[in-house]
Specification:
Distance between the termini: 85 Å
Number of helices: 14
Strand content: 15-25%
Largest sheet: 7 strands, mixed
Number of domains: 2
Family: Belongs to the aldehyde dehydrogenase family.
Protein name: aldehyde dehydrogenase (NAD(+))
CATH architecture of the largest domain: 3-Layer(aba) Sandwich
Shape: globular
CATH topology of the largest domain: Aldehyde Dehydrogenase, Chain A, domain 1
EC number: 1.2.1.3
Radius of gyration: 24 Å
Bound molecules: nicotinamide-adenine-dinucleotide
Number of strands: 23
GO molecular function: aldehyde dehydrogenase (NAD+) activity
Structural class: alpha/beta
Active site: 253
Length: 501
């Protein structure tokens, strides 16, 4: 299907995609997909005003009815899964299976949110006072601002959006300036759901097209009750204090530097498959990408040799072609960051296998395809401790399991982690309070490819936020503790007597 036909099938009319100053390029061949008109600060302000007004009405709509809107949105996503997946591939460069997988993740979170719309439960609490009852209620929070990264251009927004809408909030979304078309397509699909839903306030979902300055506007606007920001630790370091300065809430989903420990009892066949998907999938551009391998010394050489063979069999190519496992890096900056990291690793004593640029589409000078790199490192150096958003896997050895866990935790980030072992003691130690310090800790599966049912996020420089499943919905609501006195007395808590004999 031609690009214009694909965009039209998602409700994006070619005429509205031209003439603006924000050039949208495809990492597949560097071609221009659109030139969009960015929002001015005044237009962004008007969008936030609309969202604030929408919230005031939407919070009164019963939650199960709000869930119906997300059910309809999920149906639109099902009907347009292939097209939206293809647009993710075109704009972010993911292979087709992963592009469609991202849309499936959106469908899954919609299903989850529909069920949740009937389960926004609060506790009842035993009161210490006679004739009193205590409970907590969960109320809608307000406008939720979402800032998203290029590498999950739609799924991460949907984790926030589906929950926020059933929780009674409105949403203003500032997608990555590298992937605005998928955001506009999502908005069109949501408008289709709205048309079938019937009356709903205008401004429930707003999309802001533009760069960092629009993100900053969302960050600083006191009407934005929750700012959910996904991206680099650099971005989080700027955003976190600014939201805190106005006493807003921030939910930060930042960089990872995820490791797998491979122990002597590991099923190596399983480990190689898990490592491969984690390290080279999405061309190493997932927050949960496996970036460090901590291997028992007795297995080190064998595992490295097996991985080198497995890497050689992975096809780097056009992400739209079947058989391709590794598509392009997002842009020239990503490529140069990868090359700098490899040079630095070499200088620190690393032995590098792979990492070279590959020409996939003849003449496409502004497209960056690479062989994924394996780097045998003598130690966990400064370069290894840094997240380079590219397919580089640093391989290190250990001799004692406690030493492996210490090495594992000795980086600033804390997103995802895994151990391959068949030793119950090691597995449980890894998951224990003294084990992995990450938000995600796995046994005998890799670091990437999380399901929506669990809460997603990480510790330390990853930002501490949790999104998606479990009780992550609580971030999108405000909690009120209620005490009701149905007696004729007014006893005080802690047995305090005030002005009585
Ligand atoms: P990025 O930080 O460059 O940009 C992310 C978003 O933040 C963009 O929309 C950008 O416009 C905006 N932004 C940047 N600086 C800002 C500022 N000062 N104020 C307001 N907004 C600002 O990240 P990227 O290159 O798009 O994505 C890759 C990074 O995202 C990696 O570090 C990756 O690990 C991380 N990531 C984390 C998760 C997670 O859930 N933890 C998920 C996906 C990606």
């Amino acid at each position: 299907m031609k690009t214009t036909e694909l965009l039209a099938s998602l409700g994006l009319d070619a005429a509205t995609l031209d003439g603006g100053s924000l050039r949208v390029r495809s990492p597949i061949d560097g071609s221009t997909l659109a030139c969009l008109q960015p929002h001015t600060p005044a237009a962004a302000d008007a969008a936030i005003t609309r969202a604030a007004a929408a919230f005031r009405d939407w919070r009164r709509v019963p939650a199960p009815r709000r869930g119906e809107l997300i059910r309809l949105f999920g149906e639109e996503l099902r009907a347009h899964k292939q097209a939206l997946g293809a647009l993710v591939t075109l704009e972010a460069g993911k292979i087709s299976a992963e592009g469609e997988g991202e849309v499936q993740e959106m469908i899954d979170i919609c299903d989850f949110a529909v069920g949740l719309s009937r389960q926004l439960y609060g506790l009842t609490i035993a009161s210490e006072r006679p004739g009193h009852r205590m409970m907590e209620t969960w109320h809608p929070l307000g406008v939720v601002g979402v800032i998203s990264a290029f590498n999950f251009p739609v799924a991460v927004w949907s984790w926030n959006f589906a929950l926020a809408i059933v929780c009674g909030d409105s949403v203003v979304w500032k997608p990555s300036e590298k992937t605005p078309l998928t955001a506009l397509a999502c908005q069109k699909l949501f408008e289709r759901a709205l048309a079938r839903f019937g009356a709903a306030p205008a401004g429930l979902s707003e999309v802001l097209i533009g760069g960092v300055e629009l993100g900053e506007q969302l960050v600083d606007d006191a009407r934005v009750a929750l700012l959910s920001a996904t991206g680099s630790t650099r971005m989080g370091r700027a955003v976190g204090p600014r939201v805190a300065a106005r006493f807003g809430r921030a939910l930060l989903e930042l960089g990872g530097n995820n490791a797998i420990i491979v122990a002597p009892s590991a099923d190596l066949e399983l480990a190689v498959r898990g490592i491969l998907f984690g390290a080279v999938g999405t061309a190493g551009q997932r927050c949960t990408t496996t970036r460090r391998l901590i291997v028992h010394a007795s297995l080190h050489d064998e595992l490295l040799a097996r991985l080198r063979r497995a890497y050689a069999s992975c096809r780097v190519g056009d992400p739209r072609s079947s058989g391709t496992l590794i598509g392009p890096l997002i842009d020239a900056a990503a490529f140069s960051a990868m090359q700098s990291a490899l040079s630095a690793a070499r200088a620190e004593g690393g032995e590098v296998f792979g990492g070279e640029r590959v020409e996939v589409i003849a003449g496409a000078g502004d497209a960056y395809y690479v062989q994924p790199a394996l780097v045998a490192m003598p130690a966990q150096t400064a370069t290894v401790c840094h997240e380079t958003f590219a397919p580089i896997l640093y391989v290190m050895r250990y001799s004692d399991f406690e030493e492996a866990v210490a090495l594992h935790n000795a980086v600033p980030q804390g997103l995802s982690s895994a151990v391959f072992t068949n030793d119950l003691r090691e597995a449980e130690a890894f998951l224990s309070a003294a084990g992995s310090d990450c938000g995600i800790a796995n046994v005998n599966i890799g670091t990437s490819g999380a399901e929506i049912g669990g809460a997603f996020g990480g510790e330390k420089e990853t930002g501490g936020g949790r999104e998606s499943g479990s009780d992550a919905w609580k971030s999108y609501m405000r909690r009120a503790t209620n005490t009701i006195n149905y007696s004729r007395e007014l006893p005080l808590a802690q047995g305090i007597r005030f002005g009585e004999d």
